[in-house]
Amino acid sequence: MSLLLKFKIGIARVPFLGPFIRQTYQLATAPLALARSARTELPRLGNDLSDVAERLTRVEYELRDLKAMIDSEIRSVIDPRIIDQRFAELRAHADASVQTSVGQTVQRLDLRMQGLEQRTAEVMDRGDHEWGASRRSYTELAHRLSLLLEDVRKLPAGSSRPELQEKMAGTPDPLLTTFYATFEDRFRGSREDIRERVSVFLPEAQEAVKIAAGAGPIVDLGCGRGEWLEVLSRAGIRCLGVDNNEAQLASARAHGLPVLNADALAWLKEQPPASVPMISAFHLIEHLPFPVLTEFASEVMRVLTPGGLALFETPNPESLLVGAFSFHLDPTHIKPLPPELTTCLMEVLGFTPVTIRPLHPHPWRDRYLREKSLPPDVARLLFGPRDYAVLARKPGV
Q1: Predicted confidence band of residue 331 (pLDDT cuts 50, 70, 90)
Q2: Nearest C-alpha neighbor of 169 from the set 154, 157, 153
Q3: Measured in whole angstroms, how far is the alpha carbon of residue 349 from the centre of its chain?
Q4: What is the DSSP letter of 158?
Q5: C-beta of residue 212 within 8 angstroms of C-beta of residue 305
Q6: How far is residue 339's CA from residue 346's CA, in Å, rounded to a whole number?
Q7: For residues 312 and 281, is the Cβ–Cβ distance under 8 A?
Q8: What is the helix (H) or strand (E) element at residue 390, kind and residue range?
Q9: Residue 391 has what pLDDT?
Q10: Which own/partner contact pairs does 86-91 have at CB distance under 8 Å and 24+ positions apart?
Q11: Where would one find coiled-coil regions in this protein (predicted)?
Q12: Which tens digit of pLDDT belongs to each residue from 268-296?
């Protein structure tokens, strides 16, 4: 053993001093040991890190390949064509289900509608039967009353009271009254149709009432069922209807309209002058012989207030269908009145201005004019306005 080694061993065995010297020596020599270890371990650690990096690269490539494979598998599973095909199948199935459900519902509705149509037809048949029976009974009663009136009129002058004979002589034939009421219902139109037609004259009525403030009511001569009176009443305008057809007056009264049974010309002659702001007569003047029409229009002029308005509506013979056919459906028509004739008459009597307003063209007119399947002049002659109105104002305002 060398002297140096023996000295180190001896020093190490000295209490307290030996451990201290040993620790001091280890601390002093630690950097040298660390450097020796570093020189040995660092190359080894670098090799290990290279191995790890290489492995990570291989894992990255494997993950990329795996992702590509998964994407390929997914695309094959959810191919758009497959999806479209499946969706089409599902839609076809749904459409078939809906069509089946709708078809069943429609069948049920068809059955219900058939049942309703059958019941409606039964009710209509029963109503037609009862209406026909009522009409026949009414006509039979009217016929019997006509015969009775004729027998009364044939009685000798002294066989009954004079006032009874006078009243019977002036009573319209009930059978003709019944016929004319039925004729109006069948060929003139429903109440709703007539109300819509005459409503176009409401502005003129409102203006007439405004001009003649405080005057009497607007009077409709030959008022029939009272459609024009109904329009005026709904507009808050005072009005009165005059007619001698009791069957039609009954319809007007049923609607709460103010009417009285009288002859139009006789009623006019009883009125004071300048007392009525507007006098209307829808489809009345064509029933009067021309001398009576002249007297009628003259009395209208007398009774109107200054600035008052006369309104006469009548069939328009400028329409060939009216002049050649429909005018003659009514056996009480005297003759057609061309617009030029009525205009001249009203101007001679002193009305000014006098305006002609064409009304109610045939529904086919516009179609023929639009399609040009007929020459325009022919379409207007055949299917032009079927009525016209004379609006004549009394001077004075």
Answers
A1: confident
A2: 153
A3: 45
A4: G
A5: yes
A6: 11
A7: yes
A8: strand 385-393
A9: 98
A10: none
A11: none
A12: 999 999 999 999 999 999 999 999 999 99
